[in-house]
Amino acid sequence: MRERELTEKITGLAIRAQSVKQLLDSVATLLTGEFGSAILFLRPLAHGRPLFTEPGLSDFNVAQFLESRDYPFRGVYTARVVHRGRPHATLVACFGTWGSSGEILHRVTSLVAEQIGEIVVQTVAENSALAPSKRNRHAA
Prior knowledge:
Elements: H1 3-16, H2 20-35, E1 36-44, H3 62-67, E2 73-83, E3 86-97, H4 102-130, H5 134-137
Antiparallel strand pairs: 1-3, 2-3
Helix pairs in contact: 1-2, 1-4, 2-4
């Protein structure tokens, strides 16, 4: 698949996603089919633990992934998830491929992080619309 098609598919998945988890799962499935292996997860900015042992993904260890021999190329890419100009998390994307360009993997990781930021914007906007306004809260 060409990069433009891949970008369009990821954007489409983001538009249809009801949550960040759904987006990560659907994009990981798409990228696994395209490249060989893709594992995506988010890390809070103030995590305080090393990247190579990710709690919450008890069956996954970044160091073991990098040391595996399942794919000739293995790489870890990161991109900040930003909302209103402030970083909120880091997207970690682990890829195992048979020779895909590192540049496309970096661009895909950045695109997915951008799309996650858009979902955060939508979620905040929806929650704000559901919350009672200050004017109406004390109305008789």
